[in-house]
Amino acid sequence: MWFAITLCEDLENRLPLTDAAFSVGELDLAQVRTIHNLLQNLSDQKARIVEATLFARGPIDRLPPARLSGRLRRLVARYDRDGFAERSARAKEQRYISVKQCDDGMGFLSGELPSLDAATIWNRLKEMAIGDGCAGDERSMPQRHADALVALADGSGRLTCGCGRDDCATAVPAAGKRGPLAQIVVSDGSIGFGSFRGGSVGGGSFGGGATGTDAEGVPGGGSAAIPSIGFLPGVGPLDPETVRAAIAHSATQRIHVSAVDPVESAPDIAALRYRIPRALADRIRARDGVCRFPHCPVPASSCDIDHTVPFDHENPEQGGRTEEANLACLCRRHHR
Ligand SMILES: [Zn+2]
Ligand SMILES: [Zn+2]
């Protein structure tokens, strides 16, 4: 209701040409709303100047709302230069990116950026979608845009060709990607342990990329079938195919298996050492997901692992032990 009233008032008091065109049916309601919306922040005087210029440029009755807004935005920028600059600066303060979890293992990425920044990203994604990959790549353009954004984030910097041919000239190896940014939990027993013998399961984790010191990768490139649901801590479940692909590209994502590690040194001995075994550290990160300080969103992969009861280097028997119950993820800011 409020909107309708101000729209009427605006037409009567400030936008006489629009009002006249609307009353004889030259403009429809959508067009009138567009004009009203885009001129509402202007002074009465400037709104009239912009309106007059708009109508002087020729007939606008056939212009779809999107074309009409484009034309109006240019006029506003020209005739209300200071106001435009001021509103732009204020709008820029509100920039953000957000990720929300959806159904079926999908996330919804959205945000609002200064238009130049948004265009920079969009043009780069289009460039990568067209330039990276050969004719055998069957991904659609929208799929390539999405994959390109991930490639920018994981450090590989360009799309890996999807043709799957060994002799593809444009295929790029996964090398060059940065260390893990995400961690996947795979539950005990549901993973094909037999297929992964050879150290990586013993260490309780696969891959680890740049930060992986004791992980030995996945034998056979992780091509073994893994009928397992994975879990992204703090987010939700992942389908088996995603888990399989993540293990195959172990340089990007660290996989944590929550099975108790059979070759880990006996808990009693390990608990009396200050150093946290890699498998235990992975488990703590998977368990916590984020910094344990209330409401702190820093992901566990960027956190330190803190002894809640401090470890006593002089007399380990007296201090806090290096075991699951006494360890917690804390970000740099909250780890003092
Ligand atoms: Zn190819
Ligand atoms: Zn924190």
From TrEMBL:
Record-linked Pfam families: DUF222
Signal peptide residue numbers: none
Domain HNH nuclease: residue ranges: 279-336
Highest taxon listed in the record's lineage: Bacteria
Gene3D superfamilies: 1.10.30.50
TM annotation in the entry: none
CDD domains: HNHc (cd00085)
Protein name per the record: HNH nuclease domain-containing protein
Lineage of origin: Bacteria, Bacillati, Actinomycetota, Actinomycetes, Mycobacteriales
